[in-house]
Here is the input.
Amino acid sequence: MNVIATPDAPLRQSHHVQAHLAFAKARGRTVLVGQKTPHPFHITRPFHLKGDPEHMATLYLQSSSGGLYGDDDLVLRLSVGDGASAHVTTQASTIVHAARGGQTRQRVHLTLGQKSYLEYLPDPAILFSGAHLSAEVTANLQEGAQLILCDSALSHDPEGQRTFFERFANMLKITGPDGSTVLLDRSDVSGPAWARRTGALPVHGVMIGVGAMDARAVAEAITQSLPTGDAKLYSAVSPFSDRNLCTCRILAADGASFTRAMEMAWRAARVTLIGTHPETRRK
Here is the structure.
């Protein structure tokens, strides 16, 4: 057990849980070959859906606890073996409850083997009043691997009472085959500061395409797919050809607008990278 503390609370134990999922390609299909999902982690069985490559597996992540709480310290390790292909998403957004003097931690570690393909696209974390979340996503890509990654959060103030989350610290780190850093993105913000810096828009997220790809082609496809003239939506798409990296940042007035835009961006990136047109995932 780890120990956490805040300036206003004594030391207290955290609820540390680790989960592990491993995909591999066998007999022409991607299958789940390793699974450790203790409470509160839960998953569906893998699906093979129309509109996907025949060998791609789709898996939904779920929770049996009703969200993340102040003493949670959760770790998910997800690996995709050489030549395997997976789409991993969540059944719904994850609620981050008030920390009540604690600190919620969530870490995701992605490992992609040679010539593998992963779409890791969870729905936004919903930061309730009093939430204190420290989140981290790391990914390591071996030669020829491709990754589409989404990371997002929503500040929940449904009645406009300015009852914000306490703190949101976030880190994204992507490394290449030799371990060198391809991307490092950090943020640390309070709820009131979030509201000031975003013009009170509650949803922010980033989609990243990285790996064996033409970053400019992916960026152009995403740019053309996004809606224009929508006062509820702001977006910025940036290619980094020297790092085989493309980022798409979206700021939105509501979850529905954000979700539609991210789905458009994902579809455009998918078609550009592997040439297949995905069907809508049911949630």
Q: What stands out?
A: Residues 255-274 form the longest helix (20 residues). The helical segments are 191-197, 215-225, 255-274. Confidence is low (pLDDT under 50) at residues 1-11.
